[in-house]
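does this look right to u?? FE4-S3 cluster version
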Amino acid sequence: MSMFCFQCEETDNGKGCTVNGVCGKKSDTANLQDDLTSDLIALAVTFKGKNTPQTDKLLIEGLFITVTNVNFDNNFIENFRNKIKKIGILDINRVDMDTLWTSNEDIRSLKSLILFGLRGVAAYAHHASILGKKSEEVNTFFYKGLSAISENLSSEELLSLVMETGSINLKCMELLDSANISTYGSPSPQLVNCNIEPGPFIVVTGHDLHDLKLLLDQTEGKGINIYTHSEMLPAHGYPELRKYGHLKGNFGSAWHAQQKEFIDIPAPILFTTNCIMPVLKNYSDRIFTTSVVAYPNMCHIDDNKDFSIIIEKALELGGYKELHEMLGINGGGTTMTTGFAHGAILSVADAIIEAVKQGDIKHFFLVGGCDGRKNERNYYTEFVKQSPQDTIILTLGCAKYRFNDLNIGTIGDFPRIMDMGQCNDAYSAIKVAVALSESFECTVNELPLTLVLSWYEQKAVCVLLTLLSLGIKNILVGPSLPSFISPNILNVLVEKFNLTPISIPQDDLKKILG
Ligand code: SF4
Ligand code: SF3
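got this back:
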């Protein structure tokens, strides 16, 4: 076995990548990422209770680097490891990752849930910290959670830490939500165009709204249009971002279509976070990365965020000569909506409650999470298509690209599909669910609401842990269950939370709606 990684939904054979990653990660990179993880655990043990802003930053960035489809660059990872070495970690605190991957399957399962969950939390903590928001409680937990991976703990102790990872992620998503709103204003619903206008343009992908804002500033008045891609779509909802007239629309769909959608693109693409796929030769001169994202031989913009090289590239390539129509991916239209965050939805809470009381809205589905390549993910398209006319689909994360170009109608003034934002905006969904449960004087589990989740990478893991830590039951998960959850641990989750794998849309809809 030259590597071992089973952290994402597309892991080889549903078990683990052992030769090369299905994501394109080579074994040397996977092993380096394991070494980095081992460094981070040692860092956590060494500095637990003695953390500094510098060690916090290293832990958060280091964890983010190891999220799926973030960093494929061995030099970048080696340089990062050197930074950790410089501050001095005790080798005695190192964990041999092979020992973890081959340990008792229940312990390995629980420790994986903590580690992968923390990788997701780190991504959100990173975004919040860029906007100046930090939480000592969240930061301190990285030390506690990572240290636990090196300790000899019982299943019960580890399970309790798994749930704590979920609770901490709620705090972290709340922190990011307040960072985003205080910086860019409260999102409101917007119709986003998916056709590309003639002339130079730049595509921005990933989750980092701050990088987008800096690029908008640097391109203003230069005759370059900016298009969001994948998880950047919700940017259009924020007043302080959409005020830029050259933020024109959205290019393409979810991350996994990039190798098709970027072919022959007459524009550069900036990757601000996951998810970068192996770069094809056809467009390799147009890929730029920043922050923790890196790919061998691609141009990386460092922390000074001088985007002039991308701007020059956009002007040189010149964009499309005529209006470029991007056909609806799911056979739908060429517009999408976004911006239905908690502020927007709760501002019309009375009307929603009335519509539920009148029987106009019978059920809410939260269909969201990550998208991926597998054909089985058509389940989510079909689920939405087959959902009855008196139901509302709330969505978030890049999973929405399975259906967000569809016109499935309205209920009164409400569109039947409401995009609440990025995956971290699961916080919005939780806030809305809690507010509705208070209005209806019931628990969240008693609401006419079902969560139908689609997972791929580690941010989906921490979001799922948050939902479980809140005691939310009857969640449907697909397209497959994580291979790092052992049968015994799965039993615990099924017994406690009735966590259920998706089956086929008609059966699941029937089961939910009766
Ligand atoms: Fe395999 Fe996923 Fe790990 Fe990539 S991230 S090596 S596809 S399990
Ligand atoms: Fe998508 Fe990567 Fe997870 Fe933020 S962009 S949801 S997969």
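The two ends are 48 Å apart (CA to CA). idk if thats expected tbh
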